[in-house]
Amino acid sequence: MVNLQSEFIKFHEAIKLSDENDTLRQKREILLNKLRQNISEEVASYTHFNQGSYAMGTGIKPDDGDYDIDVGLKFQIKKEDYEDPVQVKKWVYDALAGHTKKVQIRRSCVTVTYQEDGEEAYHVDFAVYAANNPDEKLYLAKGKENSSADYRYWEESDPQALIDLLHDRFTDADDRKQFRRIIRYAKKWKNRHFDLSGNSAPTGIALTALAYTYFNPSFEMDFFPPKKTYDDFTAFKNLMIAIQNSFSWRWDENAQCSCYTISHCLPVKPENNLFEKMTAKQQNDFYHKIETLISKLEAVENGGKKSDACKVMTEIFGEDFPVTVEKSYVGTSESA
Question: 83 φ, ψ to 5°?
């Protein structure tokens, strides 16, 4: 097949967060300062840390333009002293309410949304934790103001362990860079081919966890001098085949049909099934979208011209993937 590595690198540069990180950092610092200034002196002390794709280095530019950053707030409290975790989340909400037109207590965080020209442009998610527990574990506050008691609880969590786990997955820094690139490609493919509302699409953290389990670096090794030449196309294709092979064919009572379903747990606490919110039919749709993706990748693998291969890749990833025309075709209809 044709070599698409240079195109993949250009594609990666086009989709990864870069200058936007500066804006996100500025928004985070403004809100953290406001939180320090406005939070009640009567509440417990806290520290903050970055979490999520921003901290893991796997974020991509969102197709809808709504950039986000996740911040953890570790309050020095025991969860037993606050039976209702929403009470603790309200400390944060009350300090930030009014900073923008939209500040919300959501199920797993407090979200501050910024708008530009009437459209949502950035949001900062504050996850609230109880950090001074006898078992020395961290617990995330879950629930909204209107949630029933069953949906207000403290959930054991370890966001830093996930960051460390992904960083330590590969000792070679260049292998680790390819690992992060492949996660970004998977997210971009997901954003292009799924309805992102509701639970019909796999989440970014689900794709990241799958990559953690199934990704293997792909490269050719030159020994004199020692040098790795990476192959992102093969690495991405092999990951998708491995994910497809992780599905099971089973009967689903709710759907009243057999479906391809998938179960995969977060590799750190709370170790929840990352596909539990997707219905069997949605999981089955996920399987067939991977099946279609692999067919397109195989067509690229069996093709002869780089321009044709690139055009198929734009079907997979969108217009951010560059289309290269072979020099021998410049000036012909191939370059039109």
Answer: -60, -35
SS3 state of residue 91? helix
Please tell me what DSSP assigns to residue 265.
B
Task: Assign 192 to helix, strand or coil.
Answer: helix
Report whether 169 contacts 212 (CB < 8 A): yes
Q: Which of 335, 277, 271 is nearest to 308 (CA)?
A: 335
* Residue pair 131/75 in contact by the 8 Å Cβ criterion: yes
Confidence of residue 254 (pLDDT cuts 50, 70, 90): confident
How many angstroms from the chain centroid is the CA of residue 48?
Answer: 21
Q: What is the pLDDT of residue 248?
A: 96
Distances (CA, A) of 87 to 131, 293, 328: 15, 46, 68
**CB-based contact 312:299 (threshold 8 Å):** yes
Contact 141, 106 (CB under 8 A): no
Residues 6+ apart with CB under 8 A from 37: 95
End-to-end CA distance of the chain: 23
Determine phi and psi for 235, rounding to 5 degrees.
-60, -45
Percentage of the chain exceeding pLDDT 90: 77
Helices (H), 106-221: 159-167, 173-193, 204-214
- Determine the pLDDT at residue 122: 82
Determine the 3-state secondary structure of 43 from DSSP.
coil
pLDDT class of 120 with cuts at 50, 70, 90: confident
Compute the chain's Rg from CA coordinates. Answer: 22
**pLDDT by residue (tens digit) across 28-61?**
899 999 999 999 999 999 999 999 888 898 999 8
Average pLDDT over the chain, rounded to whole? 92
Length of the chain: 336
User: Does the bond joining 202 to the residue before it have cis omega, within 30 degrees of 0?
Assistant: no
Q: What are the two backbone dihedrals, phi and then psi, of residue 306, each rounded to the nearest 5 degrees?
A: -65, -40
138, two tokens: 């961290």
pTM of the model: 0.90
pLDDT at 205: 95
Q: Which single residue is written with the structure tokens 């629930």?
A: 143
